[in-house]
Structures are given as C-alpha cells and as structure tokens.
Specification:
mainly alpha; Transferase(Phosphotransferase), domain 1; Serine Threonine Protein Phosphatase 5, Tetratricopeptide repeat; 3-stranded antiparallel β-sheet; two-stranded antiparallel sheet; globular
C-alpha cells in the first residue's frame, strides 16, 4: 500500500498555476466518473482531506468507507436554514452520511445519495481549494449556512487567473446549484467542458481579455446583474465589433432580459461573421451562435429556417471536429427528426443524454423519434428512468411519460404512471379538454389511436406537424 504524506487540505492549491489546477481537477473528476460509470458508485464524502497527493501533485481519491451504489429515487430540494461551521467531521446516521460542510442540502431532508449529491460536494471542494473559503458560509453570513452562493470569491479568482480558468468557474457554479436537477448529470460532461477545443496555439491579442470578459458576463447574468454584464460586453465590442464570441454572449444576455428580437440580431451578426470563415474563429470551430439562432427560429415555429441553419452548422463539423463536438448539441437530433431520419435521431439523442442534462425538448425529440423508428420498446427502460428521476410536472414531458409507460417494464411503468397523479393530474385534465379525448386513453394499455394522438401532439410542438401523415 502506498503512503501519501499530503492531501488537498494540507497545501495551497489556490497558489498553483492554472495548468496544475486544471490537471488536479481533471484527475479528481476522472476518478469519480470511473466509479460512477461502472458501478453507479456514490462516494458520499468528497472533500479536500480525502484527496491525497503524491510527490508529483497527482491526486488520488481516498476514503470510500461510506460509499454506496446509487439508488433510483430522485433527490428532493428542501427548505434550507443553517449549518454550523464546525460540521467538518464525517458522520453517518441512517441514509445520511458524509461531512456536513460538504453535503448537498437535500440529504438533510432525507434524500438518497446520488451523483447529484456528490456533484454538490465536488463543487464545495473545488470552490474551497480555489478560494480557501466556503461557498455558502462567510463573515457576512455570520458563520452560518445561507442558501445563496457567495460569488465575490469566484469573481476574484476569475479576474486573477483569466480566461483559462473560466470553464472551471462555471462548472463550480453549476455543481453548487441548490436545486439538484440543475447540477451536472454526468462527470463525462464536466470533463468535456474542461477540454480545450481547437489546436494548441498562442492566443491572439485581446483574445484572453475577451474570454475573461465573457466568463465574467456569464457570472453577472447568473446573478441577474444585467446592466453590469451589458456594460462589460459593450466595452469589449467597441474594440472587437465583429467578435462572434462577444456577440453570442450579448445575444444570450438579451434573451435573459426578455429582448428576443435583439438576441436574435446578435446571433445573426455572429453567424454572418462565422459563415465567412466556415464556422471557425481564430483557429477554433465555434457553432454556438448559429445553433442559438436556429433555436430562436424553431421557437418562432420557423422550422425550415431552423433546419437550414442547422444543416449549415453540421457542414462546418468535418471529420475530427465532428468527433470533438458530437453529441454535445441536442439540436442536431432535432434536425434528424425534422428530416425524417428517426433512427439516426434516436441514436444521437441517446448519446446526448449521456453528456447533457435532459430537458423537455430533448426528451420529446427522443420519444417521438423512437416511436416513429419502431424503437421505443428498446429505448423505454433508459428513457423511462430519466423521466422518473426528473419527476416532471409540465404537460409535454408528462405526455412523454405516458407514451413511454406503454413500452416500459411493469415496475418502471407504475413509476411513470405515478407521474400523472397529484398536481400533474390537473395538467392531464386540461389536455383532456383541449384535445377532447378521454383521460383513460392516456394510460396503458393504450388504444393505438391514443398513442397516435400523443405522438401527433408531440410532433405538432416539435416540427409543426411535419410527420402527421406518417403518424396516421
């Protein structure tokens, strides 16, 4: 057995250069991902003192004494009050185990440990090693846990370290979401976000400052400090008016402010610049603006325009670049659905859900494409588990659950049908009135006409009814 004299709590990782910090983070995430991917292992006690360091500063994850395999129950978001600052010792009581200062809040409400609770602990750990502070406890909170992320320490780290660390800051913020459904769903997605895209090269003049400004603007936007974000982006746009990265950030900011037309205009300007360079900007492929523009067209029900834009974006992704970006943009799944390539859409969306947090749109695209491809019976176990974990209340996702339930194994079918009870029953009743169809027809065993009715409703919202004739 090897002996490691130090752990991450013993050293000032905050003083390490960016490259060493990022290597440290990647190694920790890879170790956590290895265990969860193969056995659904949940560590339950991620903290700096459980990350051992060898003489080359390589981290080694330790103390799996309270680790367990993940259970399928979805986490619960509790009401938060306070935590004592001295709660830094590992404890175990019933299902709740870990070190309180690093534990996800839903654990204190009785939720089962999950990858989402480990994500929260990882976020606290990374926040602490970068800032030497706690994300929710500080002098301004009176030494008590307050349910609001302390952003100033992260802002200072970003300004000191620059753009190279921006993706890591965003990951930490996401991991520390109080709502567990908003945390990263997979470690693979974190690693992908940390990966440097494009060839290694020296940054051009102003490039680092632009990236740092965009990262800072993202943090401002998340804090709803829209004026500060706008002032920062406009300052840099005065010097770089055609920078698509700045324009894309401005477009997202405008959408957050509810200014949809101005947001689309910013995406269009960025897309025009990128089109002249075949999707590349300063040596790196950057499809985000054209995909955002396609999303705005799709939201306005301009489906053919959205399809054309995504076709252009896909043409930019040749060979190596396509492998780099593959499965990262669910919008390409919608493109295959719209074009009638249902099996391709199904395969693509299944891969997307391994890398990204599922949303209502992605689930609708996958459910419809799998049904149209005759593959829903094969997809139902995976898709059904995702739906149960999400515990949706919106009508469209409930429709997905109803349809998937018809093809799911018995135990999973019951869990899916349970989603239509309680508050969701009111949504189902509204649907019954809207489509003049008896509510009993929305529960298995389905009449074939009931299935077609659900798929037609989904297709109308996804493609404007493009496949209604095929559905029958």
């Amino acid at each position: 057995m090897k002996w490691y004299a130090q752990n991450a709590a013993d050293v000032r990782i905050m003083d390490w250069p960016n490259r060493d910090v990022l290597t440290f983070v990647k190694c920790v995430v890879e170790a956590l991902g290895y265990g969860h991917e193969r056995t659904k292992l949940v560590h339950q006690d991620i903290k700096p003192s459980n990350i051992l360091l060898d003489d080359k500063r390589q981290p080694h994850l330790a103390d799996f004494g309270i680790a367990r395999c993940e259970l399928p129950n979805p986490p619960v978001l509790p009401e938060l009050t306070s935590l004592k600052e001295d709660m830094n010792q590992t404890v175990a009581a019933g299902r709740t185990a870990g070190t309180p200062l690093y534990m996800a809040p839903e654990l204190f409400a009785g939720a089962d440990p999950s990858v989402q609770t480990d994500m929260f602990s990882l976020g606290v750990t990374l926040y602490q090693v970068l800032t030497n502070e706690h994300p929710f406890i500080g002098t301004e909170t009176g030494g008590r846990f307050k349910p609001r992320l302390r952003m100033p320490p992260l802002d200072r780290v970003l300004m000191q370290r620059g753009a190279e660390i921006a993706a890591l800051i965003e990951i930490i913020v996401d991991c520390l979401a109080l709502d567990p459904t908003r945390r990263p769903p997979h470690y693979a997605g974190i690693l992908r976000r940390l990966r440097v895209r494009g060839p290694q090269r020296q940054p051009e003049e102003n490039e680092d400052s632009v990236s740092a400004a965009v990262a800072q603007a993202v943090l401002y936007r998340q804090q709803k400090r829209y004026i500060d974000a706008d002032r920062l982006l406009q300052h840099h746009l005065n010097n770089e008016p055609d920078d698509p990265i700045l324009l894309n950030a401005l477009g997202i900011l405008r959408l957050s402010e509810g200014k949809l037309r101005e947001g689309s205009a910013a995406f269009k300007r960025a897309t025009d610049v990128l089109t002249r360079h075949n999707g590349n900007w300063r040596g790196t492929l950057y499809p985000d603006p054209i995909i955002n523009l396609a999303n705005q067209a799709r939201n306005r029900q301009l489906y053919q325009e959205a399809s054309d834009l995504l076709e252009t974006a896909w043409s930019w992704l040749d060979g190596k670049q396509r492998r780099e970006f593959d499965f990262w943009y669910p919008e390409f799944g919608w493109l295959w659905l719209y074009r009638g390539q249902f099996a391709r859409c199904t395969e693509y969306m299944l891969q997307v859900l391994k890398h990204k947090t599922p949303d209502t749109a992605s689930l609708k695209w996958l459910t419809e494409s799998a049904w149209l491809a005759g593959q829903l019976v094969d997809v139902a176990p995976t898709l059904g588990r995702i739906l149960v974990e999400m515990h949706p209340t919106d009508l469209q996702t409930i429709l997905c659950a109803c349809l998937v339930a018809a093809y799911a194994p018995a135990v999973l079918r019951k869990q899916l049908l349970d989603l239509t009870k309680g508050e969701s029953a009111r949504e189902i009743a509204l649907l019954e009135q809207e489509i003049n169809f008896p509510i009993g027809g929305l529960r298995p065993p389905f009449d074939p006409d009931a299935e077609k009715l659900i798929v037609r409703s989904m297709d109308q919202s996804c493609t404007g009814g493009k496949h209604n004739t095929l559905i029958g």
